[in-house]
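During data preparation, we tokenized the protein backbone, and the record follows.
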Amino acid sequence: MTKLAIGASLLILLCFTMTGITMVQAQTTVGVSQGDVFEYNVVSHWNSLYSDTVPEELLELNRTEWLRVTVTGVSGSQISTRVTTHYRNGTETSSDGSSNIDTGEGSGGPPFIGANLGRNDLVNPSASEPWYINETVTRTYKDGSRETNHLNLEFTGNSSEIGEFNTIYDYYFDKSTGALVEYISEFSYTGLTSITQSTLISSNVWVIPEFPAFIILPVFVIMTLFAVAAKKRLSRRSP
């Protein structure tokens, strides 16, 4: 396995792409809409016995401050996106991409899956390999607790250049929308172990938990009633 191939596997996070699966199942449901925005941080750690074995892609990830994904359009199971990468030196790059939640095909877009899937449900049902949701779990993020669908993938191989290698991917998708909320990858072979993690840090899709909708509406009604009552009192006191 060449370093280029190693880098390609690590670029799953940077490019936000996924491959998918093949089995007969009803078409998945898109849970995001045009104008939805998702912003992620990116952190990578590694332990290398030889400094020249660290792939450039890992170094590039640590130069990244955040990734912003904007949904620019939805057509059937196809989700079009605009991905903006903001680097720690203040520069930015942007690219257009797409992701098909039914086939798993895409380029430059974030991995979305169908909305409201559950344990043992197929991911990307019209693709080439049978992947299934491992479990539905509640995880806590900056904006509160979220019910997520966990997809775990493990790959082991052997190459003449680096010997045996192992890769583990953990994806967590928001159950209600199918949007990625957390990603963890662990890659290891003789001389190098790396862990890359990305977590959703902001989005315009969910209400801030301190002021959820079921609280905002009653508070608004109560404040309106107080204002009306105060106005009536003032009108009674005036000549």
Notes: The CA atoms of residues 153 and 169 lie 5 Å apart. The chain has two domains: 3-206, 207-239. Confidence is low (pLDDT under 50) at residues 1-26, 208-228, 230-239. Residues 3-206 form a domain with the YmcC-like fold fold (CATH 2.40.360).
